[in-house]
Design a protein that fits this description.
The chain has 19 helices and 12 strands. The chain is of the alpha/beta class. The chain has 3 domains: 50-173, N-utilizing Substance Protein B Homolog, Chain A; 183-217, no CATH class; 269-469, Rossmann fold (3-Layer(aba) Sandwich), CATH 3.40.50.150. Helix 3 (82-97) packs across helix 5, helix 5 runs antiparallel to helix 6 and helix 6 (137-151) packs antiparallel against helix 7. The longest helix is centred in the middle third of the chain and has 20 residues, at 154-173. The two termini are 28 Å apart.
């Protein structure tokens, strides 16, 4: 019997335009409705002025530098709709994306460390000098000076003028590193931590690492999973992955109605890996842990049709978006019974599920664990700056605990699917190996795995593993 999604409370695309900097318009493919595909709300759609955009972008960069939060969290805390935020988001993400390269170029030109808002103006303009390849240097500098006059002091505006005119040739004319460049050179030019570049060179080799760095520094395109039986609109171009399309520049309006009605979902093709390994069939009962905001849940449901999914995550903004996504999916004809449960995955017990009249063992369990995000740096532009050398091992400890917690709910002969958006073996193969060697994993065998590597596959990075409990 079908039922509407219910939420049980707990006990306790971006796309940055290379020409959208000074025009105060979203990038050509920028989703004005947000990363989860939410449609524009009434009253949205007025693009802010250049001055408004820069005021917000400077505040975002300053907040990020002062440690007020992650880039995506700072954006989600803003008032106003996605259309209002898009131009400032483009500027902000560009500044964070190129932070090291611009900082290395600016440092020799400034005698004393600038206050954070002046640092933000310099970073934003320097990023534009890199990304806005068709923009005239003088126009970019003049705009930055004008914004500095509005937001800073007259002497600081003069410094902006002098420094940017000197740094422009460095940023615009310095050639890319040679094919045999050192990790230090690659890290500086492509704005990544040196220790991380060295790690990747050791793991993947120099050529693959360079391709990965180039990928991370490129702007993310809007990818769409088309669910409707009707053909997709002209603005969606086919990709090598069935059901996934790339939104053409300037064609956001083509899919706005489809997003609002649940006919499509903004989703990178890398997300297909774990649901494909799960391979649910009609009539099965599945549990998904760390499920919000629901992209993989809806893929499982679309594949399975008749059946049920219990989706668990902590209550918060992501679960609210999950509810909205499921409501749109059901309005578009979704068949699967989906129950949302607000709970901590590590504290969840079978008794709690049973008390809610839900299964306590399942045909399959999918867990998409929190990870380092090294496979999705194009989208999470500040992830590379948050990481520390010892963090992969620390994350693996938690990931092993979460995988063991998930295993409890797998019935005899059932599947256990482990998923990350990380490129690191510490969070992928090594977690699986440790689990299989543990008491919690002694009844499981590894059947199949899949990896997404941007330099090989042309989409985000990911790891997925299907294990099976012995019957």
């Amino acid at each position: 019997m079908e039922s509407a999604p219910r939420h049980v409370p707990p006990k306790s695309g971006l796309s940055t335009s290379r020409t959208g900097f000074s025009t105060a318009r979203p990038g050509p493919g920028a989703p004005a409705g947000g990363s989860t595909g939410e449609p524009l709300r009434e009253g949205e759609g007025r693009f802010p002025s250049v001055a408004e955009t820069w005021t917000l972008a400077v505040a975002l960069v300053a907040g990020w530098r002062e440690g007020q939060g992650r880039a995506d969290h700072l954006l989600s805390d803003l008032a106003g709709g996605p259309a209002d935020r898009a131009p400032a988001q483009n500027l902000f993400y560009a500044a964070v994306r190129h932070w090291r390269r611009t900082e290395d170029a600016l440092r020799p030109l400034i005698q004393r460390a600038p206050r954070v808002r002046l640092q933000a103006v310099l970073a934003l303009a320097s990023a534009e000098l890199i990304e806005n390849v068709s923009g005239a240097t003088a126009a970019i500098v003049d705009n930055a000076v004008e914004q500095a006059k509005r937001q800073l002091s007259a002497p600081e505006a003069g410094l902006v003028n002098a420094v940017l005119r000197r740094v422009a040739p460095v940023l615009r004319e310095t050639p890319p590193p040679a094919p045999d460049a050192s990790p230090e050179e690659l890290a500086s030019y492509f704005s990544h931590p040196t220790w991380l570049v060295k790690k990747w060179v050791a793991q993947f080799g120099l050529a693959a690492t360079r391709s990965l760095l180039e990928w991370n520094q490129s702007t993310a395109q809007v990818q769409v999973r088309w669910r409707a039986a009707t053909p997709p609109p002209a603005g969606l171009a086919p990709t090598p992955w069935p059901g996934y399309f790339r939104l053409a520049h300037g064609r956001w309006a083509d899919i706005q109605a489809a997003l609002a009605s649940g006919q499509c979902y903004l989703q990178d093709p890398a997300t297909r890996l774990s649901p494909a390994l799960a391979a649910p069939v009609a009539g099965e009962h599945w549990l998904e842990l760390c499920a919000a905001p629901g992209g993989k849940t809806l893929q499982l449901a679309d594949t399975m049709g008749r059946g049920s999914i219990v989706a668990v995550d902590r209550v918060g903004g992501r679960m609210k978006r999950f509810e909205e996504n499921v409501a749109r999916w059901r309005a578009a004809g979704g068949q699967t019974e989906i129950t949302l449960v607000g709970a901590d995955v590590l504290a969840l017990t079978g008794a709690e599920l049973g008390a809610l009249s839900l299964p306590v063992q399942f045909d399959g369990v999918l867990i998409d664990v929190p990870c380092s995000n090294t496979g999705v740096i194009r989208h999470r532009v500040d992830a590379k700056w948050r990481l520390k050398p010892g963090e992969f091992a620390q994350l693996a400890v938690v990931q092993e605990r979460m995988l063991a917690a998930a295993a409890v709910f797998v019935g005899p002969g059932g599947r256990l699917v482990y998923s990350t958006c990380s490129l690191e073996p510490e969070e992928n193969e090594q977690v699986i190996e440790a689990f299989l060697d543990s008491e919690a994993g002694r009844d499981f065998v590894l059947e199949e795995s899949a990896h997404g590597r941007p330099w090989e596959h042309g989409h985000d990075g990911a790891g997925a593993f299907r294990l099976r409990r012995k019957a």
